[in-house]
Amino acid sequence: MLGKKADPKDLKKALFLERENAWDHIPEAQLKSMKTYMSNYRSFLDYGKTERESVDTAIEILEKAGYVDIRKTKDTKKIYYNHMGRAVAVFRQGKGPIDKNLRILVAHIDSPRLDLKQYPLYEDEEIAMFKTHYYGGIKKYQWLSRPLALHGAIAFPDGTVNTIVIGEDDDDPVFTIADLLPHLAGKAQMDKKANEFIPAEKLNIIVGGIPFSNDKEVKDRVKLHVLSLLNETYGITEQDFVSADLEIVPAGKSRDVGLDRAFIGAYGQDDRVCSYASLRAVIDAEDPEVSSLILLLDKEEIGSEGATGANTVIAELVLGYVLARHGLDQSGVIRRLLANAQCLSADVNAGVHPDWKEVHELRNAGYMNGGLILSKFTGVRGKGGSNEASAEYVARLRNLFDKNGIIWRVAELGKTDEGGGGTIAKFMSYYTMNVIDAGVSVLDMHSPFEITSKADIWMMYQAFKAFLED
């Protein structure tokens, strides 16, 4: 310890916390690997814009790395479990006892979007339109006047399922929601609050405008033409929309942002940035002593409810499969394993926006290029609906990350009375395990074009890998 006679500069350096820039701590020897990682991550974003596509893309990556569907093998060394095509669990067996210790990374693969309604297609003023129902927390005005794509699947009564992706190839048409011109928007929009000037029922997609035939006595000729095109390509009738999961997402690929390419801009980085890091960490972890469970789940953006979300028994289900192969599938063994587990709830936090600093408490905020972000608690205002990590668990992670050269800081989601949010962490805490939120800062979160820092992403990946290897 430094005494009163210490030089003030030395004392300040020893006692004060200084914010670090993650770029200053990435060795030149890692830059090539980092560039490859970012390229592969962008591909994951581009090919996984929905939860179904994210599962398919994750499984393709896993199988190339030697992982096998748990239903097709008795081995438990490297396996995955595809849950209803909308969530995926990954298990990697460590060298130690399989029923004693466990590391868990849990992230989500759903993102805010527009879903088509059950009977979406209609014609109005000789324009064919789709009705939508927004999913998750969005600013509705951000979805106007931009190219949109249609992704999803249609299930037919005979058991077949057709996948649809329209709007991503260069030769594809795109869709859009037309806004009102400023000349006529004074009373209709401009005098209203931002959350009111575009009602949800006006988030309607333009899908066509050419009549099916010249017979003007036939009603809804444009709608008929659009439906005939869908039927010709995908076998769809209007009734088939009721057994479909069709999502409207921003069209186009992820992009590097900035002249120096410091950032990545893309749809769905909350939370696929953490999902991909979790996936790569379990694949790349070197000779782990402790077994790992990775959960990439659905429904987080609407509270983790539903059969493919975190508020289920999916962790118990997957571990039951695994432990049964070792004669240890008793419920008590599974619950004790989960209770003794250490978990990172891999999710993002808000980065300080240079133009909107007033919504943050700047001493306790996340910053772009600030490295890994830990959120000791989430929730709303008085920590409502949150999990809060213990001091002991935070101390253990401090030691782990410092030992491995990880740049990190702790952050809250905005000022205490400003708002807040919840994550999967509270659902994992039901098992009485140690859990804390860990991810990266994001600008423009929940928008069609979210921004992350490559330096932060790299620190997060390194942190997740160290967590699984420890």
What does this structure look like?
With 470 residues, the protein is an alpha/beta fold. It folds into 2 domains: 8-111 and 267-469, 3-Layer(aba) Sandwich (Aminopeptidase), CATH 3.40.630.10; 113-250, Roll (Aminopeptidase i, Domain 2), CATH 2.30.250.10. It is 27% helix and 24% strand. The chain has helices at residues 8-15, 31-47, 51-64, 186-190, 221-234, 269-284, 314-324, 331-339, 391-403, 425-428, 454-469; strands at residues 68-69, 78-83, 87-92, 102-108, 113-124, 127-135, 148-155, 161-166, 205-208, 244-250, 255-257, 263-266, 291-297, 342-346, 349-350, 372-375, 379-380, 408-410, 420-421, 434-439, 441-442, 450-453. The strands form 5 sheets. It has a 9-stranded mixed beta sheet with strand order 1-2-3-13-4-14-20-16-18, with helices on both faces. The chain has a 6-stranded antiparallel beta sheet with strand order 8-7-10-5-6-9. Strand 5 (113-124) and strand 6 (127-135) form a beta hairpin. Helix 6 (269-284) crosses helix 11. It is globular. The protein starts with 7 loop residues before the first helix and ends with a helix. 41% of the residues are buried.
